[in-house]
Specification:
The chain folds into three domains: 174 residues, FAD/NAD(P)-binding domain; 107 residues, no CATH class; 103 residues. Helices cover 36% and strands 22% of the residues. It is built from 16 helices and 20 strands. The strands form five sheets. A seven-stranded mixed β-sheet has the order 8-7-16-17-18-15-19. Helix 3 packs antiparallel against helix 4. The protein is globular, with a radius of gyration of 23 Å. It starts with a strand and ends in a 9-residue tail after the last helix.
Length: 502
């Protein structure tokens, strides 16, 4: 065991993961988190008027042992005494005339449903369902960090995972929007771009539906903050140290080596290694003053596409919605006229009805959330005038309630709580660049399948990065594995065997 010290910037899932694995491997770790009392970063929830507003998890890949990510969550203590719900539907798209496309999590039901509503698209449906079934028999490997693997590890991966790699390579070249355009059926043409970010690679949907079919990607009862607190509990039980209200201003360096950090209050802390699991742009261009960049790093922030920021609208409703089937990703209602939010036009309203988690609302009541893509600069400018900022949020909330009242008559009178969070709210609490909620998008145009981002910066030793700004596509499993992989890299540097047992 090393006994050396590590400072970790950021107490999100990546930072907590790096801390846990650091402690398991004999390092003395300390996490510095800017929030005043909550772990998890973007994986969080908050209380409003008797309701708990969930800000993250819709489904957790690795909730069941059919996914290799299950191993990571067990190692991090996230699954202890946790109950999960596996919705029968991934999403439901409702057209203005009442027609519905239901994305069932059971592939047999999904196949029958798609053929019933779009017999004219039999060929593309058959191709999609065939590859989807293949994905249920395969899983992404979790083990050695790519940065520590050798040629024999690579060859083994290619041989054992070739069928999966071939499917992912094929569909990684196709976006949700492009796939939608392949259909003749107008409902399916409209629906597929709604099932995630339209420009994202469709391989993500195949893997997700495969995990959902296998009951390996369920929703954790209790929501996102309770999930994060479970990992924090594991970290503290391993002897780690959590520091809140501790925003890092600078990363201290000398002669091309990271030495420690300086907090906003001026206090300094030194260690053998520094890991930033904070915002990537702030880390590189503010904490390190842009001193450790090359063309590759510059291109990340100039050419890659971050996830678009969101306006998060939460409603506490005095209604059970017990007759509404639960969906993992939500329901998408076609609008009679477009809704414009911060300069972005929406033809559908996405609604997530948490009728499957009774812990988020008082008995007989339900939390609803609406996530709308928007423009960061619009809200950042509006934020300068507090009165106008609040008025705009209330105006949009009024519009959303009115639309939902048409879908669920009587709802407007049943709304007890309204909470609207803009992209500037995300920045204020997590520091995420441009209010992005999940780092970089994986699109056919911006990212090649299998390509890795460096977790180091040129010319800076004993420094590493973890989290969704070095894991294109983001998501909780990816960032948790990111923290794990960084610790494998450090263990290799220290010539010690990486372990997950303690």
């Amino acid at each position: 065991m090393s006994g050396k010290s590590i400072l970790i910037i950021g107490g999100g899932i990546a930072g907590l993961s790096a801390g846990c694995y650091g402690q398991m491997n004999g390092f003395q770790t300390r996490i510095f988190e800017m929030h005043k009392k909550k772990p998890g970063g973007l994986c969080t929830s908050w209380k409003r008027q008797g309701y708990i507003v969930d800000g993250c998890i819709h489904w957790l890949v690795g909730s069941g042992p059919e996914s290799s990510f299950h191993r990571i969550w067990q190692e991090l203590g996230a699954l202890e005494d946790r109950r999960f719900v596996s919705p029968a539907e991934y999403a439901r798209v409702v057209a203005a005339d009442g027609r519905e496309f239901i994305v069932y999590t059971d592939i047999d039901k999904l196949s029958r449903h798609m053929r019933e509503i779009a017999p004219e698209d039999k060929a593309i449906i058959d191709e999609f369902i065939t590859d989807l079934r293949r994905c249920t028999r395969m899983d992404a490997p979790v083990g050695k960090a790519p940065e520590t693997a050798g040629i024999f590890d690579f060859l083994k991966l290619v041989v054992t995972q070739f069928p999966l790699l071939r499917i992912l390579w094929k569909w990684n070249k196709v976006s949700y929007a492009e796939f939608g355009r392949r259909f003749k059926n107008p409902l399916l043409r409209e629906a597929f771009p709604l099932l995630f970010t339209p420009d994202f690679s469709l391989s993500f949907l195949l893997m997700t539906l495969g995990w959902l079919h296998n009951k390996a990607a369920a929703y954790p009862i209790g929501g996102s903050l309770e999930f994060s607190r479970a990992i924090e509990k594991r970290y503290l039980s391993l002897g780690g140290e959590m520091n809140y209200r501790a925003k890092v201003a600078k990363i201290l360096t000398e002669n091309g080596r990271a030495l420690g950090i300086r907090l906003e209050d001026g206090t300094e802390h030194r260690a053998d290694f520094v890991i930033s699991a904070a915002d990537g742009h702030a880390t590189i261009y503010e904490m390190l003053d842009g001193k450790y960049v090359d063309d590759t790093v510059k291109n990340y922030y100039e050419k890659l596409v971050p996830f678009h920021p969101l306006l998060h609208i939460a409603l506490g409703v005095n209604r059970s919605f017990q007759d509404v089937p639960a969906t993992a990703h939500g329901r998408f209602f076609e609008l009679s006229s477009p809704l414009v939010v911060g300069g972005v036009e929406h033809k559908h309203l996405p609604v997530h009805i948490y009728n499957f988690d009774p812990t988020l609302a008082p008995e007989g009541k339900t939390l609803l959330t609406v996530l709308l893509q928007t423009n960061f600069e619009y809200w950042n400018k509006l934020r300068q005038n507090d009165e106008q900022y609040k008025a705009e949020k209330e105006k949009i909330a009024d519009t959303v309630v009115s639309i939902l009242d048409q879908r669920f008559p009587g709802l407007a009178a049943q709304v007890e709580m309204r909470c609207v969070s803009s992209p500037t709210t995300f920045v204020r609490y997590t520091g995420n660049w441009k209010g992005s909620f999940e780092g970089w998008q994986v699109t056919p145009k911006t990212w090649n399948f299998g390509k890795l981002m460096r977790k180091t910066l040129p010319g800076l030793d004993n420094f590493y990065m973890a989290g969704h700004w070095v894991e294109p596509g983001g998501g909780l499993p990816a960032v948790a594995m990111s923290g794990r992989n960084v610790m494998q890299i450090i263990c290799k540097k220290e010539k010690q065997k990486f372990t997950t047992i303690r």
